[in-house]
Amino acid sequence: MASARPNFNLAALVLASMAAFTLAGHFTATRFIHDQQAHHLDELTEVVLRRSEFAVDFAAASLDELSGRGLATCDPASLQAIRLHVYQRSAVKDVRLVNSDGSVICSAYSETLEFDKGWVERGDMLASRDSRLMLFRVEQFGGDALGVLRDIGNNKALVAILGINASLFDIMPAELRAHGEVLLTLNNGAQLGEFMLDAGKARLDPVEIAKSSARYPLRATIRIDTSVLSSWNSEAYWPAIAATLVLGALFGVLLSRSRRIEGPVADLDRALARGEFRPYFQPIFDLRTGRIKGCEILARWLREDGSIVPPMNFIPLAESSGRVEAMTWQILGRALADLQPHLKSDKEFKLSFNVVPKHLMSTGFGETLRSTVAAAKVSMRQIVVEVTERDELDDLARAAAVVRELRDHGFRVAIDDVGVGHSGLSRLKGLGANTIKIDKFFVDTITADASTATIVEMLVALARDFHMTVVAEGVETEEQVRALISCGVEEGQGYLVAAPLPFARFSELIASRAANAATAPVDTAALVA
């Protein structure tokens, strides 16, 4: 009997631990699902707001270009040039020259004036963070439009009339589309656009998420029926409960043996000390020819037992715990060592790596980067610093100074996640980067959603105005390649050519592509590795 008591105690401890973990798992899983839903809806609302901001950015840049070319007049030659400008930018329906009080002097397409139900005075227009830019609703027969006014002097202003296409807001997941609505309004409540499958359906106790732009008087709102949320994204509940049962059993066993349980940050520190973080290489390629022009290095955690930890399981913790800087230098140093022969033989090849804004603006970042690259005997002009937009650049002037210093030493700077991150394009211009990377969110829908293609065209046009290059992320199909090319995008990155690869396989891919290029021209159909 005495020998059975330890086993009994162990079983009791394990069962108690499983019960406690299961109860905690229930509340945790329920809370997690609720938080995930809220986070997803918040992201969708943010996307609507960003799309709208990009449209205004696009209009403002167009007006600045027209003003800079001296076309803010009503003479026939100027109006003809403005009409050509409007024709090349499908989102803009008309451009008008107005007096300081907002009254119209002339219009590039005078016939559009006949569709106006009314025209607001300047006192009813809404100010933006840019004091020379104002927004207002243009009521028209057949649908309202957005007016964007740019002052060009003391007495005159140019106004761009932007068409608001409801498909711009068709962003809902399939299971929510019939149960929600998306609205874009001005801060005074004037509605600009709406997407709703069943306009006559009443919303019963809807959940509402709203976000306002920090730069423009715009507000995006999503409303979803509460009833549909009970089953949306709830698939994780039972796997989570099963996982907590297993964890509870393991915890009980560990507790019974009095083993010390260490936290995940300690695991990161040990992995850093052992050099377990490795660079994986994903090609950046020419969309027209398929030629690999560079690569982005991405962190992977290779444990001593050979298992690979996915980035989503350690990158957020590394960022929040302050370990991401050491991790970045570790994988960059290894990537430079691996890729050095290719970088020296192909001086046009570029190596890109990610930094979070906090790391970019940390003391000594530029000096450490220069010494790391110099030690590898690689040209600094071949290194691209990709600034991620997961965190906002709170001090744009300081960040711009860091970017300017990097560029003065030959480095290139790219802005990652453009379109769904924090920065508007006016802030991107102020930062002084060389390249913008269009987020995968837009690439995924570019072949199915005309409004996405319009947004990508806006991004390309504005990047061209800012003297930036454009890379599309997450390219997976040849159809996407053709759509991106038609929008003016020249370079891409994604699984169509290759997933992120360990260096040995990446090196084989480069060699294989070089051999194929020597024997036959590469076309779009041959992009798949």
In words, what does this structure look like?
This protein is an alpha/beta fold and 529 residues long. It is 42% helix and 22% strand. The protein has 15 helices and 19 strands. The chain has helices at 4-68, 76-87, 226-229, 237-256, 264-274, 315-321, 324-345, 357-360, 365-375, 396-408, 425-431, 440-445, 450-465, 478-486, 503-519; strands spanning 92-99, 104-107, 126-127, 133-138, 145-151, 156-163, 180-186, 191-195, 206-212, 218-225, 277-286, 292-302, 308-309, 350-355, 383-387, 412-418, 435-438, 469-473, 491-493. The protein starts with a helix and ends in a 10-residue tail after the last helix. Mean pLDDT is 82; it is low at 1-6 and 524-529.
Topology:
Blueprint: H1 4-68, H2 76-87, E1 92-99, E2 104-107, E3 126-127, E4 133-138, E5 145-151, E6 156-163, E7 180-186, E8 191-195, E9 206-212, E10 218-225, H3 226-229, H4 237-256, H5 264-274, E11 277-286, E12 292-302, E13 308-309, H6 315-321, H7 324-345, E14 350-355, H8 357-360, H9 365-375, E15 383-387, H10 396-408, E16 412-418, H11 425-431, E17 435-438, H12 440-445, H13 450-465, E18 469-473, H14 478-486, E19 491-493, H15 503-519
Helix pairs in contact: 1-4, 1-13
